[in-house]
Amino acid sequence: MLAWYDRARKPLPWRDHPTPYRVWVGEVMSQQTALSIAARRFTELVSALPDVGALAACEEPLLRRLWAGLGYYARARNLSRGAAFIAGELCGRFPRDAAGWRQVPGCGPYTAAVIASVCFGERVASVDGNAVRVGSRLLALEDGVWTAGGRGAIDGLLGTMVERVERPGDLNQAIMELGQELCTVRAPRCDECPVAFACAARRKGVVDLCPPPKPRPSAVDVELAALVFWRAATGRLALARRTRGFLAGTVGFPLVSPRTAKKLGARVLDGCFKHSITRHRLTCSVALVPCDGAMKTFPASLGDLVEPKPSWFTLNQAAARLEASLDRKAMAILREASGTKAEWDF
Fold it and tell me: Are residues 177 and 230 in the same domain?
């Protein structure tokens, strides 16, 4: 497998100079993002933030710009939290083993094992979805893969493999890349696989059954209202950074239950829209809350859903500052209600 990896591995920028900082950032960026996109954006981010101190000190607006297009912004927040921990609590020194990395906020077992094995040579297996698939096929596990016993068998196999090599980091990356390139979910290229001779699933003819689909949690239906606090006299509306709940950390409209919107005296506009966030299926309305006067903070009934002090913008200014597609869908309803595409004029 290592010989195959030496021939076929992808030229990723964090592999060229595998420092702990670069490997950490690169691995986090490449999770849930196409490698071609992550590689390009990695170069841009580390050019702007070349070390952990710069990442720890980075203001959120800049981090958002550097992360734009990668999706799942919570990963960027976790990187920022982890960098602050390393720069502050660890005085800028990186942990040297997986156990130490797991103490870094936002750093999970897989990422911790990758950094520890690649940068410090620790013989610890890094098990992501690709590695689970490779391991389940090597063992011909058709059932129970997602149970503690099944994962234990896979972790044990991969752990034994890593313990027997002098290049544990490269082997971890080889297993991951094998799952990405050859041992794929559909149409695996078994004839090209360097470990096909050891694959029990291939011998038994059950490659397509290993692993079985991972059980998915049931979808949850949620009704929400996007609150638009509106000053008719100035034609301005309020935006703020959401601090918890859906889309926490993004600038947009406060998101509340329809009951809360009603208590605030909101007027629900015609039309609603659908939106999905992970396993939540949202049905969203847009509700106007007239608030001419000296409103400096959001009502106490919103609790800590948003930062208390709103900022006021014209319709077009607000549209340019929205960060989430949910808010842009709400803005489309606002524009429709205003009767024009350019001005706020009810």
Answer: no
CB 25 within 8 A of CB 46: yes
- Domain of 310, CATH number, reads 3.90.79.10
**pTM beyond 0.70:** yes
Catalytic residue list contains 336: no
Which residues span the domain enclosing 188?
Answer: 2-209
DSSP per residue over 269-291, as a string? EEEEEEEEETTEEEEEEEEEEE-
pLDDT tens readout for residues 175-185: 999 999 999 99
Q: Is residue 94 part of a domain?
A: yes
Q: Are residues 178 and 248 in the same domain?
A: no
DSSP structural state of residue 218 = P
DSSP code at position 265: T
What are the angstrom distances between the C-alpha of 248 and each of 69, 102, 121? 18, 24, 37
Helices marked H in the chain: 2-8, 13-16, 20-30, 35-48, 52-57, 60-67, 74-88, 98-101, 109-120, 129-139, 148-163, 168-181, 200-204, 258-263, 315-321, 325-338
Which runs of E-coded beta strand occur in 119-266? 220-231, 236-241, 251-252, 255-256
Closest CA to 1 of 173, 123, 151: 173
Judgement on whether residues 16 and 140 belong to the same structural domain of the protein? yes
Count Cβ atoms within 10 A of the Cβ of residue 268 and give its class: 0-12 exposed, 13-18 middle, 19 or more buried: middle
- Chain CA centroid to CA 313, Å: 29
- Residue 308 and residue 296: Cα distance in Å, rounded? 8
Q: Of 27, 122, 177, 323, which residue is the catalytic one? A: 27
How far apart are the C-alpha atoms of 186 and 344, rounded to whole Å?
Answer: 51
Q: What is the pLDDT of residues 89-134, one digit of tens each?
A: 999 999 999 999 999 999 999 999 999 999 999 999 999 999 999 9
Answer positive or negative: Cα dihedral of 207, 212, 214, 219. positive
Three-class DSSP category at 237: strand
Do 162 and 82 reside in the same domain of the chain? yes
